[in-house]
């Protein structure tokens, strides 16, 4: 059994998708990041960066005591190693998966998050920041589109944790939708993954964990999400 410390965000959704794809037994431990659960000592003991997601695997492969993992990319790699699925099957395929996973972790996720912060959540508009992050996310979408014009999935012929990591970060903010018309290969890939049964099951979990999903953030939520030091 795996405990998943989760809230419905793009990084959290990576892990529900992976767990649904692999069929591992898991239970969700909600971490309400709008009310400050991520700063509780119990959560910080397994996720010292006070960010979701995190997991605790009560049956690690080495047979030892329960093992905790934080950071979504590290969790995906851990689960791929545990199951032997979606991580690549040889040196070259594992390298392809790893480099596109790192690309998402270092680029697509952080830049999309900053775009959302300045364009959607910031109390006062900062035109330079809005333009900066809009342009960078569009550049990253162009990188994806070019890659996906050559291969069906990010790491090549096979669906992998690289796709699982990138997919939730494409269509995040209703006020900043991706330009699928300009990037048809990205659109094809995104739609194909959305139709996977495991992805549908993972997405269906989101409103059950946070019934207020999609509602405007309140001041307390903003304070917990953006005001902590």
Attribute tags:
single chain, alpha+beta, Glutaredoxin, Glutathione S-transferase Yfyf (Class Pi), Chain A, domain 2, 9 helices, 52% helix, globular, Glutathione-S-Trfase_C_sf, Glutathione-S-Trfase_C-like
Provide structural commentary.
The protein is globular. Helix 1 (10-22) packs parallel to helix 3, helix 4 (91-121) packs antiparallel against helix 5 (127-148) and helix 5 (127-148) packs across helix 7 (184-194). The chain has helices spanning 10-22, 41-44, 72-83, 91-121, 127-148, 161-166, 184-194, 197-209, 219-226, and strands at 2-6, 26-30, 54-57, 67-70. Helix content is 52%, strand content 8%. The protein is α+β, with helices and mostly antiparallel strands and 229 residues long.
3D shape: globular
Which percent range fits the helix content?
40-55%
Rg from alpha-carbon coordinates: 18 Å
User: In what order do the strands lie side by side in the largest sheet?
Assistant: 2-1-3-4
Q: Mean pLDDT, as a whole number?
A: 95
| Structural class by helix and strand composition | alpha+beta
**CATH architecture grouping of the largest domain:** 3-Layer(aba) Sandwich
The proportion of strand residues reads 5-15%
Specify the CATH homologous superfamily of the largest domain. Answer: Glutaredoxin
Distance between the termini: 34 Å
Largest β sheet strand count, sense and barrel closure: 4 strands, mixed
How many distinct domains?
Answer: 2
Poorly predicted runs are: none
CATH topology-level fold name of the largest domain: Glutaredoxin
Number of helices: 9
Domain GST C-terminal: 90-217
Domain GST N-terminal: 1-87
Pfam families: GST_C, GST_N
Biased composition (Basic and acidic residues): 219-229
């Amino acid at each position: 059994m795996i405990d998943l410390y989760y809230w419905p965000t793009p990084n959290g959704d990576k892990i529900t998708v992976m767990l649904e794809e692999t069929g591992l037994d898991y239970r969700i431990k909600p971490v309400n990041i709008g009310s400050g659960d991520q700063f509780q000592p119990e959560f910080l003991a397994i996720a010292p960066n006070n960010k979701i997601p995190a997991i605790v695997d009560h049956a690690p492969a080495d047979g030892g005591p329960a093992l905790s993992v934080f950071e979504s990319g590290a969790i995906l790699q851990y689960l791929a190693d545990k199951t032997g699925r979606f991580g690549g099957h040889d040196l070259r395929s594992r390298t392809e998966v790893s480099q596109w996973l790192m690309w998402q972790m270092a680029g697509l996720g952080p830049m999309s998050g900053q775009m959302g912060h300045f364009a959607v959540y910031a109390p006062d508009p900062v035109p330079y920041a809005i333009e900066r992050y809009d342009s960078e996310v569009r550049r990253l979408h162009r990188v994806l589109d070019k890659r996906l014009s050559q291969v069906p999935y990010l790491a090549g012929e096979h669906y992998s944790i690289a796709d699982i990591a990138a997919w939730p970060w494409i269509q995040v903010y209703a006020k900043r939708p991706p330009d699928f018309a300009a990037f048809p290969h990205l659109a094809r890939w995104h739609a194909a993954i959305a139709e996977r049964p495991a992805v549908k099951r993972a997405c269906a979990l989101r409103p059950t964990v946070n019934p207020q999903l999609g509602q405007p953030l309140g001041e307390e939520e903003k304070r917990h999400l953006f005001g902590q030091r």
